[in-house]
Amino acid sequence: MPKSHGKIIWVGEHACVYGRPAIVSSIPLTIEDENLPRGVGLGYSSAYLLSVFRKCGGDPAKELEFVNAIERELNSHFSGVDSFMCLNDGVYKWKDGASKELPEIFFPYFIVNTGCEESTKEMTDMVAASGRDGLFDAIGVASDTFQEGLLAADIGMIESAIRDADSALRELGVVDSVASALIDQLSSLGLSCKITGAGGIKCGSGCVLGVGVLPDDIKSDLDVVYEFIPS
User: Fold this and answer.
1) Which domains are assigned to the chain?
2) Three-state DSSP class for 196?
3) Which residues contact 106 (CB under 8 A, 6 or more apart)?
4) Terminal CA-to-CA distance of the chain, rounded, Å?
5) Count of CB atoms within 10 A of residue 21's CB?
6) What is the pTM of this model?
7) CA–CA separation, 60 and 179 (whole Å)
8) Measured between alpha carbons, how far is 61 from 38 in angstroms, rounded to an integer?
9) CA pseudo-torsion sign 187, 191, 196, 202
């Protein structure tokens, strides 16, 4: 039986609910291996629902329909990207419920947990009430830049997209002081970082995603969830 894995949003949080593109990829952290952390922006809920459906002998042809139905019931501001990604490996552009496969990630990256995020519903409700369409546009432009960087294997464009998305997410109000301080610290070391997922403002913002290699001398002070080093 295939495993139910997590995902990361490179660029596009919140904006993808409102028709802007997101760039997402799967990660090899799974419900079955018990190494996919819960409630930190890595797609745990969709992966968990998928694993339950499979354990109950659900029809494989109805997996996406099942996960989508439950996720939509839990959160009216629903993009469908988590449901799609728990079923698919690789890197994708996601927009308005449609996916386009993109080249694999060619650069090193890491994921660090800053503490639990608020529920996705709480954060998407807050963002919906903010009326910040201009910020959604900025995040959508950053998604396009990230896609161009992937297609051209241009790390400078990738890093620029990450920094632009981080600025927009902070202005949107979904990045708390703990995550902001960590992103600033890592940025001072030349690492481009942002939160991944819905974020949070009370007890952490979930996971921070960064481009590059974490220096060994700071790893012991961080909750490193995953690191990818290309071969």
Assistant:
1) 5-102 (3.30.230.10), 109-228 (3.30.70.890)
2) strand
3) 150, 153, 230
4) 28
5) 23
6) 0.95
7) 38
8) 26
9) negative
User: How many Å apart are CA 216 and CA 20, to the nearest integer?
Assistant: 37
Could you read off the pLDDT tens digit of each residue along the chain, which spans 231 residues? 678 999 999 999 999 999 999 999 999 999 999 999 998 999 999 999 999 999 999 999 999 999 999 999 988 888 999 999 999 999 999 999 999 999 999 999 999 999 876 688 888 888 988 888 899 999 999 999 999 999 999 999 999 999 999 999 999 999 999 999 999 999 999 999 999 999 988 878 999 999 999 999 999 999 999 999 998
Question: Residue type for 210, please?
Answer: G
CA pair distance 79, 70, nearest whole angstrom: 13
Q: How many whole angstroms separate alpha carbon 206 and alpha carbon 6?
A: 14
Structure tokens at 157: 């464009």
**Phi/psi zone of residue 169: left (φ > 0), alpha (ψ -120 to 50 degrees), beta?**
alpha
209's CB contacts (< 8 A; 6+ apart) are: 8, 10, 109, 110, 111, 162, 193, 194, 195, 196
Return left, alpha or beta for 65; rule: phi > 0 is left, psi -120 to 50 is alpha, else beta: alpha
Whether 102 and 10 have beta carbons less than 8 Å apart is answered as no
Contacts of 17 (CB under 8 A, 6+ apart): 77, 78, 79, 124, 127, 128
